[in-house]
Amino acid sequence: MHAWQLEAIGTAWQIDTREPLAAGETAAVLDRIEQFDRVWSRFRDDSIVAAMAREPGAWELPDEATELLGFYAELHEATGGAVNPLIGRTLSDLGYDADYSLVPAAEPAAVPSWESVSWRSPVLTTAEPVLLDVGAGGKGLLVDLVAGLIPQSQGATIDASGDIRHGGSAPIRVALEHPHDPARAIGVVELAPGHALCASATNRRTWGDGLHHVIDARTGRPTTDVVATWVVAPQSCMRADGLATAHFFAGPDVLMGRFQHEFVRMHADGRVQWSPDFPGEVFV
Question: How far apart are CA 237 and CA 194, in angstroms?
């Protein structure tokens, strides 16, 4: 296997293929990543998301928005409003801003309701400036988009710092890192070909007492009950990514009844839950 390591959307990626990708294929991947970032990044001034944060309007979004924002609408409903891509301004005010100031404002902005914008694909209409943050599905979607550019014969496996889409011919074993001790694992998953695994943990982006990136849009504050989640889903890294966030807020019975996936989640008190058919082992 050949490993291509790169930086993309602010994090480390590795793309494993049977043979090195051709120059045209690597160029296509890098171009697609740049296109995606130029639309969805809230950390660069020239993105569409940054423009939306400066003024209201009717914003025409690219084709992938139909899938991404449609899925957000599903997650918003399933979590009673806890998952909402309009959390960007609140995250920024809490210190996770474009400058990575890590200094919270005295009164962080409230999260606008999803109903305050109008989404009619491909146009998102806003009545006031809003700052999108698509971290609960966007990176997974980009993994899916990149996978679609690589010939299937390559059996590509993409690891975008915890968002993994496996395209090989045999299962791979992936450890479930303990959120409080990276030298330990709370379990292991056997990730089958054609499946995606996404992990989310409150310790991954934390910058102060009780401050981290998993925001409950209903309260505008970081969640406290669940500290780590893992989701396995067929075919779609985006769905695994979004559901990993949803499991911080909604009961497993609700999410398992709506979406095809398997999960593990760990609570702040150390309790661990997992789905009956989770493809692996949990150490408890």
Answer: 10
3-class DSSP state of 190 = strand
User: Burial, 76: exposed, middle or buried (Cβ in 10 Å; 0-12, 13-18, 19+)?
Assistant: buried
The two tokens of residue 12 are: 């480390």
Residue 172 makes CB contacts below 8 A (sequence gap 6+) with 157, 166, 190, 191
> Which residues fall within 8 angstroms of residue 233, CB to CB, at 6 or more apart?
195, 196, 198, 239, 240, 243, 259, 260, 261, 262
Number of domains observed in the structure of the chain? 1
What range defines the domain where residue 196 resides? 1-284
> Amino acid letter at 145?
L
What the block records as the tokens of 203 is 């310790």
Q: How far apart are CA 191 and CA 176, in angstroms?
A: 12
Encoded amino acid at 38, one letter: R
Q: What is the CATH number of the domain that holds 90?
A: 3.10.520.10
- Amino acid occupying residue 22: A
Amino acid letter, 216: D
* pTM of the predicted model over 0.85: yes
pLDDT at 136: 93
User: What's the chain's average pLDDT?
Assistant: 95
Mean pLDDT of 155-161: 97
d(CA 89, CA 271): 32
Give the start-end residues of each E strand in the chain: 2-8, 11-17, 57-60, 117-120, 123-126, 157-159, 163-166, 172-178, 181-191, 195-201, 206-208, 211-212, 215-216, 221-222, 226-234, 262-267, 272-274, 280-282
For residue range 180-212, list pLDDT tens digits in order.
888 999 999 999 999 999 999 987 767 677 778
